[in-house]
Give the backbone structure.
Amino acid sequence: MPPNLAGVLAALEAEGSPGEFAAVEGLLGGSFSGLAEIRRSPVSKVSAVDLTADEVRDWLSELPLGHDAELHVAWIADRVGARMSFETLTDNVDDLWFPAMDDIVAVVRSGSQLMILVFDHEELITLSSVNSQEDSG
Amino acid sequence: MRIDWSGPADEHSGNDMARRARLPPDNPDAVGNDGRKEVSGDGLPGSFLARMDSAALGKWKAAYKADYPARVDAVYRQRAIDHGDAQAERLERETVTPDIHGDVPDDPRSYSNPKTGRVDASWSTYDRAIAAARKRAGGDLGPGSLRMYDRNPETGQGTGTLIGEQTPDRLRGWRIDSQDVHVNWWDWTGGKKGAGGAYGHAWFPEDPSTLGSRHIGWAPWQDGDGNVLDGH
């Protein structure tokens, strides 16, 4: 969890809660255990090791996600989740994601697909697309 | 550790910095001209340190490098970014105390970038890597630190050994990542990534029996009373 995440989320009017974390887990079939496999074939990926926050924002803005798309976001290490728009996440990425500390998983439903954006603690960012569990199961 | 300078105080001299350094961090006089509060506990604001001349900064480094290695590192790194000159680069390299440099040179896994604040080092043993990461994160994280133990609550797997620790405000900490064979550490007291904060890896040799977090979320963070921080 980044420093002062609760304060950042409050400022963004995106309340963090265990329930929102569970919602992300549910979208992925009840567990994050399949995430590593999902990330092996990403739609897009970048190493942010040498990127500034602005460069990360630039990269995110090129992704095929609508600015208004509602993301279900989870901070895995602390089992906190929140909902926010993709634009809000992009604009505030350097307050929401700190290297080394935590992995963030953001999920948005797009028709029968789930778009899964992951910011991991090793600074690899991936966007993956999978059939939603409801449709495939 | 405190440095003892004598003589008349002058705002940009080591004398005044020594006086400020003796003040507790919550003393109003330990506030820089731009009003920023000191957060690292060494009694001097980052903005003030940024304006020190090299000689005074050297004294400050000598006084604090043992107790606040990451803080000292962050200050020198910021100077390297701000000034971009050879002297600043040299000072940045010198700031890292030898005992957190690593003892495996040229490890291809290690990658550091002064501009982003990433500082990696490679170690010949697991214990040395952990000790270095803990030091990078500021050493003693206090009695109220949050801790992570080698125990998965769902499966019961693990040994119960301490594998991570961070301050309650999450600004400083470390965590053993056994899957990726390193200890992650961070110190955001100087700012975010690329803006004074520091983070990195203390790499250790591959060993399947190494204790540590298998992946983020494998073991929960707990408060000092052993309460799992689930969603808080």
User: Anything to note?
Assistant: The two ends of chain B are 35 Å apart (CA to CA). The helical segments of chain B are 14-21, 46-51, 54-64, 69-83, 86-95, 126-136. The first strand of chain B starts at residue 121 and ends at 122. The interface with chain A takes residues 111, 113, 116, 118, 166, 169-171, 173, 175, 177, 180, 184-186, 188, 192-194, 197, 199-201, 215-217, 220-221, 229-232 of chain B (CB under 8 Å).
